[in-house]
Amino acid sequence: MKVLVLNSGSSSQKSCVYEIGDALPADPPACLWEGKVEWVDDQAGYAIKTSRGDTVKDAAAVTSRGEAIQRLLEGLWNGPTPAISSPSAIDVVGHRVVHGGPHYFEPAMVTPEVKSEIQKVSAFAPLHNRAELEGMEIVAKLLGPVPQVAVFDTGFHHQMPLAATTYPGPYEWFEQGIRRYGFHGINHQYCAQRAAQVLGENLNSLKLVTCHLGNGCSLAAIREGRSVDTTMGFTPLEGLMMGTRSGSVDPGILTYLMRRQHFFDEKLDDVLNKKSGLLGISGISGDMREVLAATRNDHEPATKARAQLAFEMYIHRLRSGIGAMIAVLGGIDALVFSAGVGENSQEVRAAACDNLGFLGVKIDYAKNAQSPMEEDTDISATDAAVRVLVIHAQEDWMIARECWSLLRKQSAIT
């Protein structure tokens, strides 16, 4: 079975193709083909590679997001990096859908009803849900009536206890669907399963805190393979300090800005989602690599000070969040770092763990300094009571697995 996965972002599109046989492999296989397009204004940059080792990088002027994605996908069967003979070779297409709302949490075949529900909750994750709906339309245009599957980032957190999901406002909020949904669930679930594999333990016996640290950041407290708490909430804006997102702030700040500085609707949303976090504090970038470089390089003292403050705030909130997750679990067996910052920043991992020694967290600094880490790695010191793991995010593979399982289940029924 050939599975095409689309992972849509607000200004990027990642796609890959997996070939899965009669049984799921224990470890994530290599993609037959993977591509990424990022665009700024009317320019799109493309990067494609295949399992044969072919690579292509290109840029082109585009008139719309849809045109950019269509050009990327057509490279699957045309151009210098084809992986399949024709669009008909794709058996199923899987989409990462950031927000499933109150009704969708299990992977679902894409139908008009499912798309309507995704559209209804687009206001909760406007940077993503609308992009994901557009991806579904483009697939239908290019590939025809191929089965499409929506895999929801909120799904893994669906069974969190009411005490963790309900906001302390009027109970009517909860009745209206205003509740803590959580996000990054696809990767948090994968990290939990993979951690059990790496440790050689039964997942149901483990207490885990998983740290998804990328441009967006969230933590999850996982007990017996289930999410019991997480840092993101009604939207992906709650929780940790992120690349350009503020994370949690005093709601009084928002009412103050609305009353005194006339921040409303798009303006407030823009500040909180795009001009805060590492970028807002450092004034340099939302990219942790550039912030750390600014703390070391020959910058103006004021620039270095702001970059250092941004890093220290990020770590302070990360440590606080980890501590909160451990308290909910009543202990911890393993701490997992994943996603772009979690996998690649030895400084963030070391700083996050340094204050947790009283819990038995202790890392091997030589292992932590390995770069790049090609494989999932246990970076704990040999005498540590709590294991610290670096696990590569595999959202696309998790989506492909869900597509394979859903189609197999449907074919068994019919």
Describe the 3D structure:
Helices cover 39% and strands 20% of the residues. By secondary structure, the chain is an alpha/beta fold. The chain has two domains: 2-152, 2-Layer Sandwich (Nucleotidyltransferase, domain 5); 201-395, Nucleotidyltransferase, domain 5, CATH 3.30.420.40. The strands form two sheets. The protein has an eight-stranded mixed sheet with strand order 5-4-3-2-1-6-8-7, with helices on both faces. A hairpin with a 2-residue loop joins β10 (217-223) and β11 (226-230). The protein is globular. The relative contact order is 0.11.
Query: Which second-level CATH architecture of the largest domain applies?
Result: 2-Layer Sandwich
Task: Give the terminus-to-terminus CA distance.
Answer: 18 Å
Oligomer: single chain
Largest sheet strand order: 5-4-3-2-1-6-8-7
The named CATH superfamily of the largest domain: ATPase, nucleotide binding domain
- The tally of strands reads 14
* Main pleated sheet: 8 strands, mixed
Model regions low in confidence, pLDDT < 50 over at least 5 residues:
none
**Tally of distinct domains:** 2
Name the shape in a single word: globular
- The share of residues in extended strands comes to 15-25%
Mean pLDDT: 91
List keywords for this structure.
single chain; 414 residues; alpha/beta; Nucleotidyltransferase, domain 5; 2 domains; 8-stranded mixed beta sheet; 6-stranded mixed beta sheet; 14 strands
What order do the helices and strands come in, and which of them pair?
Layout: E1 2-8, E2 12-19, E3 33-40, E4 43-50, E5 55-61, H1 65-74, E6 92-97, E7 108-109, H2 112-120, H3 129-143, E8 148-152, H4 162-165, H5 171-175, H6 185-199, E9 207-213, E10 217-223, E11 226-230, H7 251-260, H8 265-274, H9 277-282, H10 288-296, H11 301-329, E12 334-338, H12 339-344, H13 346-354, H14 365-368, E13 377-378, E14 387-390, H15 395-413
Parallel strand pairs: 1-6, 6-8, 9-12, 12-14
Antiparallel strand pairs: 1-2, 2-3, 3-4, 4-5, 7-8, 9-10, 10-11, 13-14
Helix pairs in contact: 1-3, 10-11, 11-13
